[in-house]
Design brief:
Blueprint: E1 5-14, E2 22-33, H1 34-40, E3 49-60, E4 63-73, E5 77-80, H2 81-90, H3 97-103, E6 108-121, E7 124-129, E8 144-149, E9 157-159, E10 163-165, H4 166-177
Antiparallel strand pairs: 1-2, 2-3, 3-4, 4-6, 5-6, 6-7, 6-8, 7-10, 8-9
Helix pairs in contact: 2-4
Length: 185
Amino acid sequence: MFDGHLGLNSLVLERPFGVAPSLGANIHFENLDLEQVTSAFSFGGMSGRLFGTINGLRLVDWSPVAFDAWLRTRGGGRMSYKAVDDLTSIGGGMSGGLQTMALKLFDTFGYRQLGLRCRLREQVCLMGGIDPAPAAADSRGGGYTIVEGSGVPRITIVGHRRQVDWPMLVNRLEEATRGQGPVVE
């Protein structure tokens, strides 16, 4: 799958044809081709190899109610302006007009590593990244680095919202994969 490996274990299925069916599993994937993944889901184009885990996945009535996911790259790659915009919207940030105009001057940006974490509990996703960002990135010290830039031009993406409403995050992901820009409410 996507020129990599996908594994599943601890699969539990309850009431598959009954009221409120539930499914539990742990998923891991290794060495997925990010170009193929981002192309398949209409996310902004990226190159590199993707690794990750989704532990404690629990679906009730086929909707996620709990999981602990961590997606990351080993080594760097390049990403398009649209990928930068999509990742910024997921992390709860938004680009200012001047920043957006400056970013559009370049087709792609180099990155050293990428990491995104989401721990879903009670309709809230606790977000994280590669590692905590320095306190200066957020006056409360709560920022987290999603993308560490590399080369020229380089861009570093820092998320600022640690707790994101799950339905809002799903909406942001749907907008990103439809090829539209983020919606700011």
